[in-house]
Write a structure and sequence with these properties.
Rossmann fold; 4-stranded parallel sheet; binds iron/sulfur cluster; alpha/beta; 52% helix; 8 strands
Length: 411
Amino acid sequence: MHAPRNERLELRSTARMKELLAEYFGRLGSAAKDRSAPVAWCSSVGPAEMLRALGFEVFFPENHGAMLGAFRMANECMSKAHARGYSQEICSYLTSDVGAYLAGKTPLTAYGMDSAPRADVLVFNTNQCREVQDWFEFYGREWKVPVVGVTSFRSVGEVTEPLVTAITRQMEDLVPTLEGIAGKRLDPARLSEVVGLSRQCSDLWKACLGTAAHRPSPLTFFDSTIHMAPAVLLRGTPDAISYYELLLAELQERIAGGVAAVPGELHRLYWEGMPMWGKLREHASMFAQMHTCVVASTYCNSWIFEALDPADPLRSMARASLELFIARSDGPKQRYIERMVEQFHVDGVLFHDCRTCPHNSNTRYGMPGRLREESGIPSVTVEGDHTDLRCYSAEQSRTSIEGFVEQLADR
Ligand code: SF4
């Protein structure tokens, strides 16, 4: 059952995930075409549960950006957005997605769609960055549809009750507009049900990721970036829950059978920052060749929402949105990374300094140095980008990573 050293050991569950994604995009494509359901765009940790409870088909454009990166289509599209005045320095999800729209291109043709689905409303939460609002407003102007959202706090230290109350109020204020577009009232019982389903999805996703604490790890960060798709796109649905039950059983089976995601695992790393979508396969092979398993990441953990509570849906959604790692100040972020290093028995941290996402780059205000000095956690920084491959040098990165892994071996 061992894969060749530089190949990914594919999880069987992948086949079911592909079916679920085909069904999801099929529903979205039909809704956009025959108007059978309203379509909402939602930022990745926006109020998706509220949208689902109102009967919207929900599209997550950051996933579209990631697909453009993974399919290596981003770089041919971004120039169109740059020509419209969107800087090369801003989020390459935004520029590749807007560029793809302007160029009439999309990787969603794999699902029978010839474009991203046209939205009836776009709903953001700036807990992650301001870019999502600017991004959605482009489409709001193009399609003359409403853009609404939550303007959140950033760099949050302690998540206090007044902060949660302020975000809850903003979420409540969205309801009348969204009801008007959906053509129905928000049923509190349905909202509670959807939040409950999201919480179950989150718990199961956490359990799947948690299996990587086992030595050897049954999955890598690169597997998780693929298998997080249902948590991102289908949270709040029974499909996501049944999927993670299946995946968790397979991961537990791997643990019971002593199956390692990286055969001959010697070193264990934590990935801090965005994945590089166009380099996933290359990275998986490179680390496998070094007998190094990237076991866990902040990124994949970001779809764990432990605050969600069906007994208090809106307030718990507000709390979950504030507790998000990306929305926090450096103190809570540092303590979080320290906890992850301990939980996953990690030897060192790889920081991805992502050129066009400063929000998901935690190298710029001294974090690696503080982790080394205060907790003895070694790290390496790799420069790159989540989508724009021009920002990444494979040769330079490999040299840095190999040097780092050799240092770990000497420790
Ligand atoms: S968090 Fe970063 S990658 Fe995500 S939309 Fe904002 S700028 Fe882009």
